[in-house]
Design brief:
Length: 272
């Protein structure tokens, strides 16, 4: 305030004027702050009948005909902690190929599963092997053996043997974010518990129980759009009997680009 105004304005008025100016300043500052809007919670889609839901899951599974991707696979368990760079090819429920590389991009092994045929290329001995020798070689390369026939559709985001599952019980979890469905595999008699996300209706988890024994758990996570299709970029498999977990993280995913059946062939003439 200028000296002249200080002289002309009484002290009581000067105090009131200061309060007025400060008040206006506060109003101005507050009004200039960005408005914080409440986060809208996405409404759950209307839950359809279980038969309709399973039809949608089947349609989604069928829509992903093949997958190509780079993956980082981590295998951990008792006295086991391995990490690999791999390339992954999956063709429906029919075939899968996994090429495993060292940190220096050397091929450690090539595993092919197609129907009842399981082959592995062992670069150390430069030969293609089959039968029991595959599991021995896989154990040497990966530190464990994995029956990929059980998981082939898992790696393309599908629920294994979905068409054979019959629903027994369906209920929400405690906070109603996951629909928990207990089913029976009509072909094997195994119990299969499925978790479906309430908001996206995408698979979240699967538990396989044989008799009273838990065989494995599967989790799908980190869904991202790939060519308008929702695809899980992280798959976790927990094998209770081995106390092992396998974490597969995807990058550079390509869907439905076509994979020749030649990609699932190895030089059978090298096989012992």
């Amino acid at each position: 305030m200028s000296p002249l105004l200080t002289i002309l304005i009484p002290n009581s008025m000067r105090i009131s004027l200061r309060r007025y100016v400060v008040g206006c300043l506060l109003v101005f500052i507050v009004s200039c702050q960005p408005k914080v809007l409440p986060v809208s919670i996405e409404a759950k889609p209307e839950m359809k009948s279980l038969s309709s839901l399973f039809s949608e899951l089947e349609a989604r599974k069928s829509a992903i005909r093949d997958v190509k991707a780079f993956v980082r696979t981590k295998i951990s368990g008792e006295n086991l902690n391995q990490s690999f760079r791999q390339t992954l090819l999956v063709k429906g429920d029919e075939a899968m190929r996994v090429d495993t590389y060292s940190l220096f991009r050397q091929v450690l092994g090539v595993l092919i599963y197609e129907g009842e045929k399981t082959l592995m290329y062992d670069p150390r001995e430069n030969r293609v092997i089959s039968g029991e020798a595959v599991w021995e070689s896989m154990h040497r390369v990966l530190g464990t053996y994995i029956d990929f026939g059980d998981y082939i559709s898992v790696f393309s985001g599908g629920i294994p043997h979905l068409s054979h599952l019959q629903t027994k019980v369906a209920k929400w979890n405690s906070d109603q974010t996951v629909l928990q469905i207990e089913t029976i595999n009509q072909k094997t008699g195994e119990r299969v518990d499925i978790g479906i996300d309430a908001y996206t209706l995408l698979p979240k988890s699967l538990l396989l129980i044989r008799g009273t024994r838990e065989i494995y758990r599967i989790y799908w996570d980190d869904y991202k759009k790939v060519d308008e299709l929702d695809f899980a970029h992280k798959v976790v498999i927990e094998i209770k009997s081995k106390n092992q977990s396998i974490v597969v993280s995807y990058s550079d995913v390509m869907i439905n680009q076509g994979i020749s059946l030649d990609a699932f062939e190895l030089a059978l003439g090298l096989m012992n």
